[in-house]
Each structure stands twice: as C-alpha cells, then as structure tokens.
Specification:
The complex is a heterodimer of chains A (272) and B (221). Chain A has 272 residues and is mainly beta. Chain A contains three helices and 16 strands. In chain A, the strands form four sheets. In chain A, strands 1, 10, 11, 12 and 13 form a five-stranded mixed sheet that branches. Classes of the chains: A mainly beta (272), B mainly alpha (221).
C-alpha cells in the first residue's frame, strides 16, 4: 500500500463514522419537544435556554460510536404499530432508528423518548425538520420495534442494526472530565448546545445539578423547590472544554409566565 | 552568499513539495455539499470528505513522522470540521483552507489536539498494523528528507505563521485567501508572511549549517 494514500479500510470506516456523526447530531427543533434521557439530569426539563445533548452524539467525548450492520429497514404506518426488523447480526448491540412524522401527532420511541409534530411542521419548506433519531439497545429475542402514537398519526421509520462502542471522556488541563453522559455516569463538564444550536460548550455538572435542585434532601424540600421553580429559571455558565473560558449561559427551567424571572445561579444562595 | 544558499534551498524544498503533493482543486459542487452538510446531511458531508481527504492527508504526511499519525490528523481535522461547523471560515466556497490550518495545528500538538477523538479513532479498523516511522517513511529518501526539513522548519514558527506558510507556500493560496482562512486582515497576513518566510529561511539555513557540520565531522573521522 502506498503511503500516498490513506489506509482504505481506515478511510472507509472514518467516512462512515463522519456520516453517522453528522446524521445523528441533534438539531434544535423549534416545534418538537424532546424528553431527553431518564435520570441523567434528575428529571429536570431542559428547554428554556438550550438542550442537553443526549447519548447518540458521536462527535463528543464519551459519546457512543455506532457501526452500521446490515440494511436499513423502512416502513410507513398510521397509529401504533410494530415493525419486524429481521434477525440481528451476531455483533449487533443496538438498533438505530430514524422516525419521520408524516402527519401531526405524538410519536413515542421504544425507549420512551417522544416527539410532537404539529400542523406548522408541514406548512413550511422543507415540510419538516427531517427525521428524529434514537439508538435503542437490543432486547434478547425481540426482533421488532414498536412505535406508539396518538390516534391516526402517520409516520415513517428507518431502522438499522448497529454495533455500539462508547468512547472515553476527554480530560482537560485541570483534570476535569468533559463530554456527554453515558452508562459510566456523568462527566465533570457536561456537553450542551445553546443559542439555537450555534454554540457548543460544557456546563459544570455540579452547577447543573445545583441549578436543577439536585441537592434536595426530602420530599418537602422537593415540593418547595418545584413551587419556587414554577416562576424561576436559573442560568449557569457555559464553558469551553477547559472549564474556564465562558462562552455563554445555559438556562435551566421552563418558567415562561408573566411573573417568571431568570436569574444566574451565582446570585442565589442554594447551599450547593 | 549564505542568504542565497538559504533561498535556493527554500525554493527547492517548496517546488519539490508542491510537485509531490499537488492535487486537483475542489470541484464546484462544494458550496452545495457544505450547505447540505450544515443541514445534517451526512452524505453531503461525505462528499466534502471525499473532496479533501487526500489533500489533507498529504499535508498531514508532510507534518508528521508516520502514516498512522497522519491518518489520525485527518480524522481529527474532519471531526473538528463538524464540531466547529458554525465558525468554520469558508474561503471562496471551500473549507479546505480551514482543514489545512486545522491539520497544521493538530500536527504541531498531536497529543493534545487529537485527545478528544483518540478513542473514537482507535475504534476505527485498519488494513494494516501500525508501522514505525522508518517503515512508513515516504516513498523516496528525498521526499522524506525534505519533509523532515519542512516539518522542523515549520515547528520553529508561531502557530499563525506556520498556517500562513502552509497555505501560501505549499498550497497555492494567495495571501488574501489565507487571510480569510485565518480571520486576519490582508495587510496583517502579508506582514506576518514576510516575517514567517524570513524565519523559515533562517530555520532551513540552520538545518543546512547543521548538516554541513555533521558532514565535516564525518569527514574528519
């Protein structure tokens, strides 16, 4: 093999990884609402100022790398339906799913993630923001994928078996880990996107946790926190991966009423 | 006389590398492919990858000591292209200058620059085992020698100056185009380029002097 050419196997794999990275990078959707993850951020709704990146993002440390296996299965259905995706290859660990709404309605992935498409999604050009993607683990002996929907909602699903490997978190000069939350836990600096997707950065896990009320010690405290949060959003700094350079702010909370206010975490005495 | 020798060597290095690494310029469809990439079109991003991977790889070979490192630089450069897509400077419809500058920076600081993607890159299969710098030395001794000269000379330059030399001297971009790629004014680019070329020539001269000293030592043994 000539050194003037890249290793063809490496090149093909890199190309595939790049395509998957681009396709699977979540975009900020103005009308679609996502419930991201379960438990990763202690149940906080992260919608006001940005979207915490869920697993499935390839280009960040700690994110999984999905190697495609086999063909893409495509099916179009109306209402809740189960799709047979065939026998998984021996090395398959997960199924990559891309779900496109063809009418308005609610649509639920097998892992509980959901999206809502309304009529406005079909009145602008292009008619929708493209498919929503999820990668769900295989269940032994189950070769089907079930999409639940609101009544008469029509959808198209593309499914493909993949082999998933989780990458390592990065470590900055201060020894802090950074990247996306995965099955190993949450890094010190958690990846976020802000400014309608125009800025990538990281929030400190302890600040995110504090702004999210993660230090409540009792149900009474949790109830009090929820009551306070009804009219309050909290902003925390967004950093470069060095954990020092501030590139913006991330808003925790979804208070939007006339009495709502948004305050920086540093202005509060939350004891965390 | 010494100045003339340095200039001659600089010109010879430049011409040889230009001849060695010259590839076809980007096809006209790049602006469309890049625009579609920004809309999460993975296949469009693959088109951009296919357009520029060889050029970036050839440059990375020039800047590193083995093909394994060069391939890592290419991979990291394209992942960075996607990660920093919102701020990539497009020059005349092409992201290639940005990729070349990024590959230069990554090559100058291999460990730090590529760490973000190390696990991901390591997970990608290869046709061959990793080979040592001797095993994977460029095709000819002359090219290897010239690549070493250039790499060491560029390593003496400041980061932005190195990028300017790469874009203008080895990759045929005008100072104005390089200025756009680096986000500096045309005037600043020309000033820095003059300084960089002087330092580059000095570095090449030092190398030539060292070579002559070593040759003298060998002769005296």
């Amino acid at each position: 093999m000539s050194t003037k050419e890249m290793d063809p196997v490496f090149t093909a794999a890199l190309r595939e990884a790049l395509v998957a990275t681009v396709k699977d990078t979540p975009r900020v959707r103005r009308r679609w609402r996502w419930r991201v993850g379960t438990g990763t951020f202690l149940g906080v709704t992260l919608v006001a100022g940005g979207v915490a990146l869920a697993s499935g993002v390839f280009s960040l440390p700690g994110a999984p790398v999905n190697t495609p296996l086999g063909n893409v299965i495509t099916a179009t259905r109306t209402g809740t339906a189960t799709i047979d995706i065939g026998t998984p290859p021996a090395t398959a660990t997960d199924v990559s799913l891309a779900l496109t709404c063809l009418t308005a309605g609610w649509f639920y992935f097998p892992n509980g993630s959901s999206m809502n498409c309304d009529s406005a999604d079909f009145t602008h050009a292009p008619p929708s923001d493209g498919p929503a993607s999820e990668v769900v683990p295989l269940t032994a002996g189950v070769d089907t994928v079930t999409i639940k929907t609101s009544p008469n909602a029509t959808w198209m699903l593309q499914a493909m078996y993949v082999n998933q490997v989780t990458t390592s978190w990065g470590v900055n000069a201060s020894g802090e880990t950074y990247g996306v939350a995965n099955q190993n836990g949450t890094p010190d600096l958690v990846a976020v996107i802000i400014n309608q997707g125009h800025t990538d950065g990281y929030v400190k896990e302890n600040e995110l946790n504090c702004a999210a009320g993660g230090d409540v010690a009792s149900l009474a405290e949790a109830a009090a926190w929820d009551k306070t949060s009804q009219n309050r959003n909290i902003t925390i700094p967004v950093y470069e991966s060095d954990g020092v350079t501030v590139v913006g702010t991330f808003t925790v909370g979804n208070a939007t009423g006339p009495n709502s206010k948004t305050v920086p975490l540093s202005s509060l005495s939350l004891g965390c | 006389m010494r100045r003339a020798i340095k200039s001659e060597l600089f010109a010879r290095v430049t011409l040889t590398l230009m001849r060695t690494f010259l590839v076809v310029e980007s096809p006209g469809e790049e602006p469309e492919a890049w625009a579609a990439s920004l809309d999460n079109d993975g296949n469009a991003f693959a088109v951009v990858f296919d357009m520029h991977r060889d050029r970036v790889y050839h440059h990375a070979l020039r800047m590193t000591t083995n093909v394994h490192d060069a391939e890592e630089v290419v991979a990291a450069a394209f992942f960075e292209l996607w990660r920093r897509r919102k701020s990539v400077r497009v020059v005349d419809g092409s992201v290639l200058p940005w990729l070349l500058v990024t590959a230069t920076n990554l090559s100058r600081n291999l460990t730090r620059g590529i760490r973000r993607y190390r696990s991901l890159i390591a997970s990608l299969p290869r046709a061959t085992e990793m080979r040592s710098s001797e095993d994977v030395a460029l095709e000819s001794i002359e090219e290897t020698r010239l690549a070493t000269i250039v790499r060491e000379a560029i390593s003496t330059l400041a980061r932005a100056d190195a990028a300017l030399i790469v874009l203008t001297t080895f990759e045929h971009y005008s100072p104005a185009q390089a200025a756009v790629a680096l986000g500096i004014t045309d005037g600043a680019a020309r000033t820095r380029l003059h300084r960089a070329r002087t330092r580059m020539a000095a570095a090449l001269g030092t190398w030539e002097d060292d070579k002559n000293i070593n040759a003298t030592k060998e002769t005296n043994r």
